[in-house]
Amino acid sequence: MSDEYVSLEEARQLSGLRLVSIRGVPSPWSQAARAILRVKGLDFTLAQQTPDDPPGLLQEWTGQTSFPVLAFNQEPTRSGWAEILLLAERLSPQPAGIPSDPAARAAFFGLAHEICGEMGLGWCRRLQSIAAGMQGERPSPVAAYLGPKYGYSPESAPGWFAATIPSTPIRVDSGGDETQVIRA
Fold first, then answer.
1. Would the pTM count as exceeding 0.90?
2. Measured between alpha carbons, how far is 111 from 182 in angstroms, rounded to an integer?
3. Given a cut of 60, is residue 163 above it in pLDDT?
4. What kind and span of H or E run contains 102?
5. CA separation (Å) from 132 to 26, 31, 54, 123, 126?
6. Which end of the chain is more exposed for a tag (fewer CB within 10 A), N or C?
């Protein structure tokens, strides 16, 4: 794996594992996907949309317009955090990133959804950033683009972050003898 990027057009023609991310813009989801692949020791090609790529190519190839996207050979592309993690786990089972115990796995995915999923902590923090970019006479072009895509509305803004804070303790089992309880 190199830190060199190829275009979407090039990536689409390649086989193997390809991670399509947005370059030069902070993206926690893209960085997390990249970190998962590195921890798993998987070789992958980095791809980005370039000015030479035909308009609409990401939509045509992946069926959606968000980053990151993980492509593997001719399998359907993956753009959700859980699907990206599950593919990485399948391709490189060790080190295990997902608990093997069913109850622990359910707790893992539940907590991860509250952080990574729609209306989870990361999602709501993005909405807060969009809200900040919408302030003033001339909203940021990025905020104006992302707002409708991710459900921004000024009316619902105050409740976003509060909705992501758990009101009950969260049990975290590290697999050892100790169980930690985190209280909000």
1. no
2. 12
3. no
4. helix 102-116
5. 16, 23, 32, 14, 10
6. C
